[in-house]
TrEMBL record:
It comes from the Bacteria. UreD, UreF and UreG form a complex that acts as a GTP-hydrolysis-dependent molecular chaperone, activating the urease apoprotein by helping to assemble the nickel containing metallocenter of UreC. The UreE protein probably delivers the nickel. This is Urease accessory protein UreF. Belongs to the UreF family. It comes from Thiocapsa imhoffii. Pfam families: UreF (PF01730). GO terms for cellular component: cytoplasm. It is found in: Cytoplasm. GO terms for molecular function: nickel cation binding. Keywords: Chaperone, Cytoplasm, Nickel insertion. Required for maturation of urease via the functional incorporation of the urease nickel metallocenter. HAMAP family: UreF (MF_01385).
Length: 226
């Protein structure tokens, strides 16, 4: 019989899996345009690009909001949940990034309902607005600790972007995995920053991501949707 800690870990692995049918593999979050613009030309450039987002967007925006959404869900605070969802969507800098959040949110919300998680159907309209909310909801219902949930979200995000870089650059799988290992070592510090961040400090400034994402909307040849 699986103990509670093992069950929560298995659920987290499931939630963070790249096989989850939310379309994560179809998005590069600006990397595709950055490669075409020669901002990213090699493994070191990719690592620097993702490090900047990890330390800015993830540490100061996505993860603090994930933690607050999970806390709101645990006490059935739909007003609070809506507030943090609005905050997250307002912080997505381009139409593509907002669309990605919405499409992935709807896909995950449908999945949560199909899994028959308690109250998922009732909360679906909220959860469908952004993927982070659905992730927080599943973590709350499966009794995954907030720090573990944040770590799983960070890993899933990181793995997706590194794999996008592997597809777009002359970068082998082994080299891509080396980049992934080095970047993953930064996650614990990012989790600490996110957990300690007060409400008034939530926000990130990543102008290069905003430019790349906006330019990608009109990029002539594209493999990815963002």
């Amino acid at each position: 019989m699986v103990d509670e800690d093992s069950a929560a870990l298995l659920r987290l692995l499931h939630l963070a899996s790249p096989s989850l049918p939310v379309g994560g593999f179809t998005y590069s979050q600006g990397i595709e345009w950055a490669v075409e613009a020669t901002w990213i030309r090699a493994a070191d450039d990719l690592e620097d690009w993702i490090t900047d987002q990890l330390q800015e967007t993830l540490a100061h925006f996505d993860l603090p909001l994930l933690l607050r959404m999970q806390a709101a869900i645990l006490v059935d605070d739909m007003v609070g949940l809506t507030h943090w969802i609005d905050w997250l969507l307002a912080g997505r800098d381009s139409a593509e990034l907002r669309r990605e959040e919405s499409l992935r949110g709807r896909a995950l919300a449908d999945l949560l309902v199909a899994w028959e998680l308690p109250d998922a159907d009732r909360a679906r309209a909220h959860l469908a607005r952004c993927q982070v909310a659905g992730f927080a909801f599943a973590a709350a219902r499966w009794e995954i600790t907030p720090r573990a949930a944040a770590a799983g979200y960070a890993w899933s995000w990181l793995e997706n972007l590194v794999l996008a870089g592997v597809k777009l650059l002359p970068l082998g799988q082994t080299q891509g995995q080396q980049v992934l290992v080095r970047l993953a070592q930064r996650i614990p510090a990012v989790l600490d920053t996110a957990a300690a961040l007060p409400d008034h400090s939530i926000g990130a400034s990543t102008p290069a991501l905003a430019i790349a994402s906006a330019a990608h909307e009109s990029q002539y040849t594209r493999l990815f949707r963002s």
